[in-house]
Specification:
Strand 1 and strand 2 form a beta hairpin. The N and C termini lie far apart (52 Å). The protein has a two-stranded antiparallel ribbon with strand order 1-2. By secondary structure, it is mainly alpha-helical.
Amino acid sequence: MDSTLSDEKTEEELWKEYRKTKSPELRDKFIRQYMPLVKYVAGKVGVGMPGSVEFDDLVGFGQFGLLDAIEKYDPGKNVKFKTYAVTRIRGAIFDELRQLDWIPRSVRQKSREIEDTIGDLEAKLGRTASDAEIAQKLGVSEQEYQQTVMKITGPSVLSLSDVWYSGNDNDHMSIGDSIESPSSLNPDVIVEREEIRKIIIEAINELPEKEKMVIVLYYHEDLTFKEIGQVLEVSESRISQLHTKANLRLRAKLTSLRKGIM
């Protein structure tokens, strides 16, 4: 068979056939078709990761997500396979990274300290805290704060993969999911899941404008940091920094909201 999907049948027809037959031949066909997607997602996840994290390892982790997506995809739910698979692939990569526990404890602690500081500050101020205010609360200069943010870029990538459960262990969504496909939720999705999505979107909308743009362009428009830098006319490292700051703010907001809900 060709490595591309059959011209005689539409992709939707092939998925329906696979759902019925679980044909190994069709499964291999889908794997070949979507391996470039695994490499693409691995490349995006790899941005900002330390040198010890190999691209080939990320691809290997992502393959597990692709296989999972192929087995569980339901063409009757009006969500494109690519959209569904991206979430599964990214999730599998993050799961493996967590198990490896590659983030130094000191960096993890610093990330949590900044999140807690932002949460406390914004709760008191009733608005978004500035970098200067966050730095002052941490007892460091603004420059030192900016340098610290750059050091925790890798962990911040993981933060948007954290899931929020809706009460059903099999039904959950990540912060990234709600940005990636804001209109892909099915009509029969449970109310709790929609409420979680609303909370996440509200937190994103409260971000400073540039941070919000970076998050939306990265997760929803699927641009790389380099491409976002060209759009906003700033350096790639600046985009990485804005991405990390946005993650820290989101984590702080959502942790506070989750405590209030539970």
